[in-house]
Amino acid sequence: MSILEIIKSRRSVRKFKDITVESEKIDRLIEAAMWAPSAMNSQPWAFVVIQDKAVLQSISDNSKKLLLENMTNFPALEKYRGVLEKNDFNIFYNAPILITIYAKDNGLYSKEDTALAAQNLMLEAHSIDLGTCWIGFAREYMDLEETKNKFKVSSEYSAVAPIIVGYPEIVPSQSIRNKPIIFYRR
Ligand SMILES: Cc1cc2nc3c(=O)[nH]c(=O)nc-3n(C[C@H](O)[C@H](O)[C@H](O)COP(=O)(O)O)c2cc1C
């Protein structure tokens, strides 16, 4: 597949097979992420990889609780209140792996750099038959000091990209994109 075909055929996956992802494939995803460009080649990213089902369930529960208790800070999420209130809604869709990419806070463009690493990771995953979905719902909880302490993340890092990974059970059909807004092209 050409790179454009890989880019266009990647979908956010929300249903996974109950299959373990090989450790070498996780290495490969991190390798792809690390080869993203970054401002002044600062490479401000760091990774937390969680594969324990009980831990993932507890992060999902705690993330929902945190968002619901602080919904006034996240007005854009108000439309998801109903789904977040459902006890049986797992924000990770029972995926076997969560890779959260953190950004070191001291760089001018650390978050942009880290988002590029995240996209590299998702595209590489797709190219080796894995599915991913960026789970914004998890960011606030993964960014708490107590969560960072638990996963040995230094305090100068901020959570940017929580991404679930696994073998897709269902791949959604082609997504839609708006026409590009091009303000100037000459
Ligand atoms: C920053 C960001 C946060 C997202 N958060 C969530 C999320 O919390 N839950 C979810 O199911 N999908 C989430 N998504 C996935 C988007 O819904 C998805 O990318 C979008 O609908 C386009 O679909 P596609 O990825 O299949 O092209 C997120 C995507 C991004 C980039």
Task: Describe the overall structure.
- The structure is a single chain.
- The two termini are 31 Å apart.
- 37% of the residues lie in helices and 15% in strands.
- It contains seven helices and four strands, in the order ααβααβαβααβ.
- The chain has helices at residues 3-9, 23-34, 53-69, 81-85, 110-127, 139-142, 145-150; strands at residues 45-50, 97-104, 131-134, 157-166.
- The protein is an alpha+beta fold.
- Helix 2 (23-34) packs across helix 5 (110-127).
- Strands 1-2-4-3 form a four-stranded antiparallel sheet.
- The chain has one domain (17-166): NADH Oxidase (3-Layer(aba) Sandwich).
- The protein is globular, with a radius of gyration of 17 Å.
- The mean pLDDT is 97.
- The site of flavin mononucleotide has 10 residues, from strand 3.
Short characterization:
This protein is an alpha+beta fold. It has seven helices and four strands, in the order ααβααβαβααβ. It has a single domain (17-166), classed as NADH Oxidase (3-Layer(aba) Sandwich), CATH 3.40.109.
